[in-house]
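User: Can you predict the 3D structure for this chain?
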Amino acid sequence: MWLESRGKKGARLSMEDADLSARELSTEDLTEAELPGTRFDGSDLSMAKLHGANLASASFVKANLSGAQMTKANLDYASLKNANLSGANALRASFYETDLQGADLSGADLHGAYLVNANLESANLESANLRGAQLGGATFQGANLTGADLSGADLSGASGLAAVQASWLMQGPEKAPIRLEGEALRSWLETAGTSK
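Assistant: Here is the predicted structure, written as structure tokens:
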């Protein structure tokens, strides 16, 4: 009712530190929900609507968020270790200091997302849209960046880029990206985190 009336009737879903682990929540509409610190470990949130939701410090370990709509969601300090976010739409979402180690972000739309100091070790970012993303201080050791679009992304202080898997990726200005592969790609990866 709160969503349909645009906040005029009913109340916004608000639960702090709740345990919603191993739940079937696929396609649920949790738009603008207040769920900080909530545990969703092992839950199925595929195709869920999480637009503008406050999920700060929430735990999504091994959760299925494939195809989830997470535009402008707040996932700061959250744990998404080994979570499936393939095909998720996280346009301008915030993942400050979020643990995405081993997460599947293949084909995810992270355009303009804030991933400063995020842990992306061993994450699958194949064909992910990271255009204009803020990735300063992020850790990429062992991540798969093949086909990822990093045009216009800020990688200042990012680490582990020399140890990523990538046969090619898009890089350069957001409005005029170029495809990097082979030696040009390796050279760029070795220096990408040291400059803006």
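The CA atoms of residues 17 and 38 lie 4 Å apart. The helical segments are 182-191.
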